[in-house]
Write a structure and sequence with these properties.
Glutaredoxin; 5 helices; 4-stranded mixed β-sheet; alpha+beta
Amino acid sequence: MNVQVIGTKKCQETRKTERYFKERKIPYQFVDLTLRGLSKGELDKVKSAVGLESLMDKTGKEYAKRNLQYLVHNVEEQLLAYPALLKTPIVRNGAKATIGYCPAVWQEWQQKE
């Protein structure tokens, strides 16, 4: 498995996800969104796996701060410009991806490897 966990250190769900992989001794790469956002290519791969609308955290502080609930906006442009708008954690394994804490899906990935 080639797992990539994308999130922030402050996010409780991201920490829980990291713990899941550590406890099972599954190697993973952590990408901190506060330091580096997703590239266009990475966003396209995640978008094709989970859908664009499900990537944006519409209940988060950043969404409210930018008043996006009142504005017509290009979702993809906003996600690339402001990585804090992404729901976390995003877990990638090749072309597959999940949003949030999804141990059942990750277990399926493990069994198929």
